[in-house]
Amino acid sequence: MRKITTIAPPLPALPRRKRVAAYARISLENDKTKNSFSAQVSYFSKLIQGNPEWEYAGVYADCGESGTSKKRDDFKRLLSDCEAGKIDIILVKSISRFARNTVDLLETVRRLKELGIDVRFEKENIRSMSAEGELMLTVLASFAQEESRSISENSKWAIRRGFQKGKQSSTQVYGYRWDGANFVLQPDEAETVRFIFSEYLAGKSPHVIAAELNDMGIPSMYGKIFYQRTIISMLGNEKYIGQIIMQKTFVENHVTHEKKKNNGELPRYTIENAHPAIIDRETFDKVQARLNQRKISVQRTAFTSMILCEVCGLNFQRATKYYKNKRTSVMLCANRKHARPCDCGTKQIPEKVLESVTTEVLGLSEFDADIFKAKIKQIVVPSKSQLAYHFHSGKIVTREWKSTAATDWWTPECRAAQAARMRDKVVTDEHRKAQSEGMKAHYAANPQRRKADSDRMKKFCAENPDWCKAQSERLTAHNAKLKAGKGE
Ligand SMILES: [Zn+2]
């Protein structure tokens, strides 16, 4: 006979309560009140004992100056209890309380991770066992790398150093004061920050807002006036929502200490609720949306930052020209755009011309910005009518371009109108004198321009002596006619 034995499933093990310890370190320089020590200890005891899923495993606390290695007895005791398997979670107020430097921190946190112990940093809102915690470790590792390369000040916090060193804006934020460890809210400045955000959302421009604040006599951070750019950078500062973004920039070259904007080469790490917010998230997001619209209206085209004036070493910039209500977009050397003296002799190139020449160079049937970006590294302009296309592949193709300005603007009607104007025009001595004064003033203000113009003229005349002679005769005859009051 068959015997049936029932095998009872094992009883599900009750989830064991997590054994939670806290580590507190009191630095005398920052925690001015003597109660701080017992306050922290009782805070953590209450926090742990108030959580039904947690089992109190004790509060470990050291007292000593911040950043030094003195008096870390309880820290050592905590680690040995961890090794002994007595603890599952460690609560810490902030990263800076936990270890002396990033290298130290990384080693400790990684070892604790191996043991399955989660370290939770309250201020930074980080759990070492979470995916975010992993990211944090990566970020810290990169700081640690930098730290190990520069052995100076090894007692200081690499993170805090990153915040302070060279990145003035990070610790000097209107609306807060940096007390050495935290951003402390400045109520009166916070009020101004809220005003700026609400005015901007009400449709006012940064320029107008700056003027309003200056009219009201409200000083900026260092008692100076507000500028448009001050307002724009404030409107985009995530610190106003209590957030800190770490690793916005990074040191690319450890020899030159060249800073580079982090566009995803390294993880960017965000700390939420790092300090009291001045602006709520919704308002901030609306402002960012409007700021982005503004960026679009400034409009980057396919040619932005792509055309280099070889002589000046500057990029061509975009300008909009109007002639008889007709709008044309051109690209021209930055020196020329801003009327700075230069010798490059480049011309403004209509975008239409750039597009058609580029289309031809790329062998396309119509201009395609994506293909252009994919294939061309840069367009170098060596002289007034040449364009040298530098491909990513290393190939260089040179093309001549012709100005279409004459045909675009100098229509038969324009020509007739101008001729009519000239016919009626009587050039008086005063007029001639005024013109000559104008030229003198222009050259006095731009001595380099005078030299450049004169050299260019001399060079041209030397190369074209016949034209030069004929032109000189034409001008003499023309001036004589004008002087006689006949016009032409
Ligand atoms: Zn130039």
Gist of the model:
Helix content is 44%, strand content 18%.
Number of domains: 3
Q: How is the largest sheet built, in terms of strand order?
A: 15-14-13-12-16-17-18
User: What is the rounded distance between the termini?
Assistant: 132 Å
- How large, in whole angstroms, is the Cα Rg? 35 Å
Q: Uncertain segments of ≥5 residues (pLDDT<50)?
A: 147-169
CATH architecture of the largest domain: 3-Layer(aba) Sandwich
Beta content comes to: 15-25%
Which overall shape is indicated by the principal axes computed on the Cα atoms? Answer: elongated
CATH class of the largest domain: Alpha Beta
Oligomeric state of the chains?
Answer: single chain
Distinct small molecules bound, one entry per kind: zinc ion
Please give the count of helices: 19
Structural class: alpha+beta
- Relative helix content: 40-55%
Describe it for me?
This protein is α+β, with helices and mostly antiparallel strands and 488 residues long. It folds into 3 domains: 18-156, Rossmann fold (3-Layer(aba) Sandwich), CATH 3.40.50; 166-297, Putative Large Serine Recombinase, Chain B, Domain 2 (Hect, E3 ligase catalytic domain fold), CATH 3.90.1750; 307-407, no CATH class. It contains 19 helices and 18 strands. The chain has helices spanning 36-49, 73-83, 95-98, 102-114, 131-149, 158-164, 168-171, 187-201, 206-215, 228-235, 281-298, 334-337, 351-362, 369-375, 405-409, 412-424, 429-445, 447-463, 465-483, and strands at residues 18-26, 54-63, 89-92, 118-121, 126-127, 176-178, 183-185, 244-246, 249-253, 258-261, 269-271, 307-309, 314-323, 326-333, 349-350, 376-381, 386-391, 396-400. A hairpin with a 4-residue loop joins strand 16 and strand 17. Helix 4 (102-114) packs antiparallel against helix 5. The chain binds zinc ion. Zinc ion binds at residues 309, 311-312, 333, 335, 342, 344, 346.
